[in-house]
Amino acid sequence: MLSQFGIMFLFILTAFAFIGGILLFGKLLRPDRPTEEKLTTYESGEEPVGNAGVQFNPRFYVVALVFVLFDVELVLLFPWATVFGQPTLIAETGGLWGWFALTEAVVFVVILALGLAYAWAKGYLDWEKPQPQLPTVATKVPTTLYEQVNERYKRPTTP
Amino acid sequence: MLQIAFFAFIALTLIGALTVLLTRNVLYSAYALLLTLLGVAALFVFAGADFLAVSQIIIYVGGVLVLVLFGVMLTSKPTTISTSTVVASERSNAILAGSRGVWLGVLLAAGLFFGLSRLLMNAHFALFDQPISKAPTTIDTIGKQLMTEYIVPFEVISILLLVALVGAGYLAKKSIKP
Amino acid sequence: MELTVLVIKSLVILAVFGITLLIATYSTYAERKVAAFLQDRIGPNRAGPFGLLQPIADAGKMFFKEDFIPAQANKWLFILGPCLAMLTALMSSAVIPFGDSIRYGSFEVPVQGIDVNVGVLYVFGVVSLGVYGVMIGGWASNNKFSLLGAIRAASQNISYEVALGLSIIAILMMTGSLSLRHIVNEQNGFFQWNVFTQPLGFVIFLTCAFAECNRTPFDLPECETELVGGYHTEYSSMKLGFYLFAEYINMFTSSAIISTLYFGGFQYPFMHQVHDALVDSLGSTVGHNIATGIGTAVLFGKIFFFIFFFMWVRWTIPRFRFDQLMNLGWKTLIPLSILNVVLTGAGLLFDKFKYATWLIVIVMIIMAATNAIKAPRRKPVTVPQL
After folding, report:
1. Number of domains in chain B
2. Where would you find the membrane-spanning parts of this chain (chain C) (predicted)?
């Protein structure tokens, strides 16, 4: 007999076969005429500079770190959630089970919520808001002239 | 049929693990780790531990490995294939282990290997014994045990996670606010 | 015996695949038609009647376009990325219960790919795997835009996963089972639908589903104003097709899961009466099968509504900024979902009262209303006729 997981495996295999088949089919159909220009990395029409080894914000790493901790919490809550409301268990303990389980889970969650609050208060979850920078242009036209133009074509806001 | 699948997953796990060990590119080893973790999850299924398999995927593949990948991407440069800097970029990723303490490492590895293999020998791969369709889900039992017998570890885990969070924040503080 | 089971299961698998792919294909057409409708255009209307053959023409184009792998890219990972995205997208539709069951002789086959009893966890696991398709593809392109898109995608997905999981946990507390079929069966009766018992959980789940699918307003990984094409900048031909197609498959599966978890799946009002009437008049086999068919049709109606909703939102709401996205995920949705779980538990213990989370909703509505009243009024601006 096939187990449920066996069928799942079969499903994944079928998906693999499907994807592989389509890629192979496409490979047979499509032309293949690479040139050097085609194979360059796209960088908005410029010659690409260096590779993609760019520095990025370490906040991404911190977010992933906080996520892992919450992930563990989440996985531990799954078995709790399934047994929480079981009527047989509640009946056996005379209604105590539910309160007991809820208290435990609340303690568990609250401790982690404290962690979230800590990270929040310390600003690990803050992302820099983009600071719009007004471009400064070296021009001989004085800025007052622009203001005059603006003033002249200003829309009356209040009647 | 079942045997073939079982050994296929073992092969997957081992190939992944060997790639982690032998490849010179840190990012490749991270992706090979993905293979290994998936293989281990499949082996958990064979042991009848469905919840453990899924939590392996959720925590390790979905969480820890993403963290590892972020770490690698933050610190290393992807290798350039066509340029002449191949060697240099590979070198920057290599972990330079000194020759000190070789014996300690070997001893540790041997001890770990021995312990783990003892564990594995004693492991009970349920799927080979009983008809699979009758294998009940383990999640109920885990839930009950977590709420009764292992209540203290359950709560201690949350404190541990809190401590880890604070620690992570402390480490990250320097990089965020220079 | 074993062979028959294998054949039946293979047929079911193929059917699930076929339906998923068909709906995803026509979602692309529907998206363009919906966009056209919302923007007062006509949309595709050349290929076939009403442009109905457009998706097939698009697929043909994907097949015949030249596919190049950039010289700087990492070849195998570059190919692996879209394949993985497609694989994870295809996998999750396996556990969705599309209908009750089909009777055939003495057999009773459930209309479901795999009736696994950890269905919810399976879906959640697949969701957490979903990061990799984008991440591997984005990194392997060795393009700055792609890499930034990939990092954004991964960061966004993991940020919304926690709230997603917590809103699922609130449902699990009510049903006490991880099987999706069981969750559906638990929602018999219109007001037993989880959307009525878990209104807040539904909103959180919906938002997170949008974020996990990388759909607008959460499509920062492929935000064309900032990142060109995002993670698929370097992709062309069928590999690009995989990425785009995976998005539509994800949309279909998340619509299906939303309908299953919150809108009663294949349940509809007066279902049992309809079922009994059909069985009485047509016999227990044919009647039951027709009743199942009606249920399946109802489920697909719900799914199509949610697919439409996804599109409606896409062409209505502008994109978030990245800091707004992170703030929404971490500072709004996670605390709210924790509150939701706690209140659901308390309500369940207090005389099995399932509708406790309406309290949060009412408080939030009151707060919003007072905010709106307190807010300074803007002076009406009259624009002079020029």
Report:
1. 2
2. 6-29, 76-99, 119-141, 162-184, 190-211, 248-270, 290-313, 333-350, 356-373
Q: pTM score, two decimals?
A: 0.84
How many other C-beta atoms are found inside a 10 Å radius of the C-beta of residue A88? Answer: 8
pLDDT tens digits for range C130-171: 888 888 888 888 887 888 888 888 888 888 888 898 898 888
Do B128 and B162 sit in the same domain of this protein?
no
pLDDT tens track for B64-111: 888 888 887 776 554 444 444 444 444 444 455 555 567 788 888 899
Query: Residues of A numbered 14-43 whose beta carbons fall under 8 angstroms of chain B's beta carbons: which are they?
Result: none
Quick check: A61 and B70 CB within 8 A?
yes
Residue B30's domain comprises 1-77+119-135
Domain of residue A61: give its range.
Answer: 8-44+55-122
On whether the CB atoms of residues C234 and C79 are closer than 8 A, the answer is no
Is B71 part of any domain? yes
Task: Scan for tokens 């408080």, then name that residue.
Answer: C363
Q: What is the CATH number of the domain that holds B51?
A: 1.20.120.1200
| B41 and B123 both lie in a single domain | yes
ipTM tops the 0.85 cut:
no
Q: Which chains touch B (3 or more CB pairs under 8 A)?
A: A, C
Q: Report DSSP letters for C284-339, one per residue.
A: TTHHHHHHHHHHHHHHHHHHHHHHHHHHHHHTTSPPPPHHHHHIIIIIIIHHHHHH
